Description:
Layout: E1 5-8, H1 23-38, H2 46-54, H3 57-66, E2 72-75, E3 78-82, H4 90-100, E4 104-108, H5 115-128, H6 132-135, E5 138-142, H7 147-156, E6 159-163, H8 166-173, E7 182-186, E8 190-196, H9 197-202, H10 205-219, E9 230-236, H11 240-257, H12 262-278, E10 282-288, E11 292-297, E12 313-318, E13 333-339, H13 343-352, E14 360-363, E15 373-374, E16 377-378, H14 379-382, E17 384-387
Parallel strand pairs: 3-4, 3-6, 4-5, 6-7, 8-9, 8-13, 9-12, 11-12, 13-14
Antiparallel strand pairs: 1-5, 2-17, 10-11, 15-16
Helix pairs in contact: 1-2, 1-5, 10-11
Amino acid sequence: MNDxxxxxxxxxxxxxxxxxxxxxxCDLLYKIESTIRKDREARLYPDVISVGYWCRKANIQKKxxxxxxxxxxxxxxxxxxxxxxxxxxxxxxSFLFALxxxxxxxxxxxxxxxxxxRILLRILKECLAKFPEIEKRVAFVKxxxxxxxxxxFSKIADVRVIWGGDRTVASVREMPxxxxxxxxxxxxxFSVSVIDSESVLSSEPQVIERLVTGFYNDTxxxxxxxxxxxxxxxxxxxxxxxxxxxxxxxxxKAKKSYNLQASVAVDKYTRLCQDLMDRDDIAKQKSxxxxxxxxxxxxxxxxxxxxEGFGGYFYQTDINDFSEISxxxxxxxxxxxxxxxxxxxxxQDIIKNNCLGCDRIVPxxxxxxxxxxxxxxxxxxxxxxxxxxR
Length: 390
């Protein structure tokens, strides 16, 4: 383990569990929220602020009450987290969720040097000093890709939280683990939006501004790299003018806020050329400079893997009713964001069509709002065990 850099803690970690939503765990989150709120550097990053906002006392108390149903629950032991490299703060949310579920934690942080990681670890280290019982149960590590090291941590884990592509999940699952170890795998997923064009056309300017800002935050902020970022847009209604209003407003937002990296621009142009040469389901395409590319499809695609846009590259198609969404509602579909439609009606249609996919239906602007229910997993109940008393 000489190649492991322990950013916080050590290999000699206390693996004993504790009750869910323990007083110490909740108090630590309140301290993190207060520290983030007052930290000048932290306030420069909206995603760090979102961590603090999630940790606020009112939110944690509400979630604690949801699990206060008389059942006795305790953590499973040690949770080992392999966190995603494309979302700077996901590693911290993964830690917080397992902590509230009553577990000790070893967290492998992303290899990329995001400033958000440094800020959050600095704040956590400062806060942990006041919570020695939790401090001895926490380790944050960084190491180059190594099956040997990951395998060593896997052997001692009671829970493995695996964020990554399908290959990462398959690789880790092959590594030996305890007989009762629980794996929570967040593999490759895909997300879409459903927007009613007539609602866009009839909405007041301030509503459109909120809509476009929310969609921008769901997509451009992470270059559509997040599993919950929509890449395919389903349009209901029959207003071409409404669709044009939406895309033009999004382009104006991107012009003001988005910094298009040269490498992303090249990759987008390459994707556009490939689509125009190889696809036979394209009705038309439209580009707003390099910032926004829209591929209009003749219908719902047979394979969503062919619609994985990035950096402001979207696919769209018109639908007559929600049943057409079931064509792409396989196990890869994670989140559906919406505007101008009835989400309950959409959910009922997904159930009626016995779809394998769709874990979340949320308004546009909430795609990135990670929580204790994620990818269909109830994380507190999955990462803890219930003591059954009769």
